[in-house]
């Protein structure tokens, strides 16, 4: 074989992908191998002094090259492609579809750490830590940076789906969700210390999460008492430990990263069922029970902050880091247990057509709504109540 010519195995990989209209080159394949993203062809020896040979091209090599070709393009950082590959490998496989192999988990971990180091929350935390000890000037600098990074408009979560649904039915203005911009006070507390920030600012930070519908007025008295040393002692070190998103990712095993992906993809589906209630998705006892579990945990606003139904690689990285936490794992397990207890989420009571009838009802409802035919929560055909 001439020097510099592609190996027969690589020629076969290139040919197999070309049949699928996926174009890769030998130099790309070798570049991906050097980066640790593409496995080498498995070889076996021919005997002493006779060298080795590739038996057959490993399908994992072909499929890994195919997924890299899908997600990589000129000028794009490979780490973003690795995260998209990791997400794709975790998706359910349709009948007859090709199984996407897992990317090297070391590369996944590296990509996660790289994205998290550049995230807004981590950059704000670094600013806060550098400004610690600078008093009010340091705090002013932090809030100035936060204003530039977060923009002029506060980021708000979505209001409770039940409230959204009721407002749409009544043709009223949609209620506002949690204002997450208050979280900057929490970052300041981690960087400067709780006493420097004060109980009132911390109350605003905790209330901004929106869990359990608790308000600033609910949190403030408790935090003021803690600030004065009254009542039970508070371990404020929990804030510092909770803020460390890099440490858990760097320490996570491959199995833990895979579990975090399972939790994230599962919660994404549950969140979709939760939030679509606000957009007139027909209700069923099984769906209502799942929403009730989420509300019992007070996690609706948090899921809205964490879950993106079509996430960018950067959003995926931040969500995966959060899903390493026991809180999200526990919620996922609770919802899976509820789903196992009542799996008929898309079957309307008394309707034997199952998911098909469910979707037909939803489409009809949306059509009636757009035509102005819905009155007091009922369709023009006097069908099932939307609030049932």
Tell me the layout of helices and strands.
Layout (H helix, E strand, L loop, with lengths): L7 H12 L6 H9 L8 E3 L6 E3 L4 H13 L6 H12 L15 H13 L2 H11 L4 H16 L10 H9 L13 H10 L1 H4 L1 H11 L6 H12 L9 H7 L2 H6 L2 H22 L9 H12 L3 H7 L6 H10 L3 H16 L13 H16 L18
Antiparallel strand pairs: 1-2
Helix pairs in contact: 1-3, 4-5, 4-18, 5-18, 6-7, 6-9, 9-11, 11-12, 15-18, 15-19, 16-19
Textual characterization of the structure:
Strands 1-2 form a two-stranded antiparallel ribbon. The chain has helices at 8-19, 26-34, 59-71, 78-89, 105-117, 120-130, 135-150, 161-169, 183-192, 194-197, 199-209, 216-227, 237-243, 246-251, 254-275, 285-296, 300-306, 313-322, 326-341, 355-370, and strands spanning 43-45, 52-54. It has three domains: 8-104, no CATH class; 120-243, no CATH class; 246-370, no CATH class. Residues 376-388 have low confidence and may be disordered. It starts with 7 loop residues before the first helix and ends in an 18-residue tail after the last helix. It is mostly helical and 388 residues long. The chain is 59% helix and 2% strand. Strand 1 (43-45) and strand 2 (52-54) form a beta hairpin.
């Amino acid at each position: 074989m001439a020097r510099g010519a592609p190996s027969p195995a690589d020629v076969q990989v290139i040919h197999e992908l070309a049949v699928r209209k996926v174009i890769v080159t030998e130099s790309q394949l070798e570049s991906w191998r050097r980066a640790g993203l593409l496995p080498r062809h498995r070889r076996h020896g021919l005997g002493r002094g006779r060298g080795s040979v590739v038996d057959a091209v490993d399908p994992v090599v072909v499929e890994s090259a195919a997924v890299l070709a899908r997600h990589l393009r000129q000028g794009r950082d490979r780490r973003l492609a690795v995260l998209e590959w990791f997400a794709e490998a975790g998706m359910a496989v349709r009948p007859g579809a090709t199984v996407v192999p897992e990317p090297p988990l070391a590369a996944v971990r590296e990509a996660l750490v790289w994205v998290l180091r550049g995230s807004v929350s981590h950059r704000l935390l670094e600013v806060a830590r550098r400004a610690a000890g600078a008093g009010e000037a340091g705090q002013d600098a932090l809030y100035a940076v936060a204003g530039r990074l977060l923009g002029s408009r506060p980021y708000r979560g979505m209001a409770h789906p039940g409230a959204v649904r009721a407002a749409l039915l009544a043709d009223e203005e949609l209620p506002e969700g949690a204002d997450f911009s208050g979280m900057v006070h929490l970052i300041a507390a981690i960087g400067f210390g709780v006493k420097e920030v004060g109980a009132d600012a911390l109350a605003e930070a905790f209330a901004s999460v929106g869990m359990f519908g608790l308000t600033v007025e609910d949190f403030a008295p408790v935090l003021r008492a803690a600030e004065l040393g009254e009542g039970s002692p508070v371990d404020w070190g929990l804030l510092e430990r909770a803020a460390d998103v890099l440490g858990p990712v760097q320490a996570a095993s491959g199995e833990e990263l895979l579990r975090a992906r399972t939790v994230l993809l599962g919660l994404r589906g549950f969140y979709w069922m939760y939030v679509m209630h606000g957009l007139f998705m027909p209700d069923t006892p099984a769906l209502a029970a799942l929403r009730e579990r989420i509300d019992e945990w007070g996690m609706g606003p948090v899921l809205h902050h964490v879950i993106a139904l079509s996430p960018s690689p950067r959003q995926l990285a931040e969500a995966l880091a959060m899903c390493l936490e026991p809180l999200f794992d526990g919620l996922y397990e609770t919802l899976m247990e509820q789903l196992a207890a009542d799996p008929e989420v898309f079957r309307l009571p008394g309707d034997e057509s199952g998911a098909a009838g469910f979707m037909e009802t939803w489409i009809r409802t949306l059509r009636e709504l757009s035509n102005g035919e819905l009155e007091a929560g009922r369709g023009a055909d006097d069908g099932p109540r939307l609030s049932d």
